[in-house]
Specification:
Elements lengths: L5 H4 L4 H18 L5 E3 L4 E3 L7 E2 L3 E4 L5 E2 L2 E2 L5 E5 L5 H5 L1 H9 L3 E6 L4 E9 L5 E9 L19 H4 L4
Parallel strand pairs: 2-6, 7-8
Antiparallel strand pairs: 1-4, 2-3, 4-7, 5-6, 8-9, 9-10
Length: about 170
């Protein structure tokens, strides 16, 4: 399995970080009274199903905070968002999506600040217990009112709030 070298991360644009920050702040304020927490790209996950390799999502919502091993969460986040950048797009669309499917993440957003669009993926299982991702919805400027967390329908972030670059 390929990994993204750390030096590639230094080429991230400010807009990439702003989308992460916007989501964490907006959803974080709504989620604080629940058992779940939202994290930006400062937390790592380590799963047996991924050979204990470290994965660091741009954004995750996890509801089982006690499932930890040292500095890594071992529990499965219910929601993950990756914000695309040139250096990580192939990794986010392929390997990371497969990892999230395999471990049992419920909802996966791919946010593209360059195109101002969000692809919402859900995961399901075949009869032989192999997982697969399917594109639930693509949200852009033309249907921006449809942006909604599927697994957390009570938490709200608008399209304009997510992509606020001011």
């Amino acid at each position: 399995m390929n990994t993204v070298p750390i030096e590639d991360m230094s080429k991230t644009y400010l807009e990439h970080s702003m989308v992460i920050y916007n989501f964490v702040i907006k959803i974080g304020n709504q989620i604080k009274d629940s058992l779940c927490r939202v994290f930006g790209d400062s937390v790592q996950y380590q799963w047996r199903e991924n050979d204990d390799k470290i994965v660091i999502p741009d954004v995750s919502i996890i509801c089982n905070m006690r499932d930890r091993k040292n500095v890594s969460f071992t529990g499965i986040p219910r929601f993950v968002m990756e914000v695309l950048s040139d250096s990580t797009e192939a990794y986010d669309r392929n390997e990371k999506m497969q990892i999230y499917c395999k471990v049992g993440v419920s909802e996966y957003w791919i946010a593209d600040w360059r195109k101002k669009q969000v692809e919402i993926y859900l995961f399901d299982w075949n009869e032989d217990d192999t997982g697969y991702a399917y594109l639930y919805k693509t949200v852009s400027e033309t249907n921006k009112e449809e942006l909604q967390l599927v697994m957390f329908p009570n938490f709200k972030i608008t399209f304009d709030e997510l992509f606020d670059m001011e």
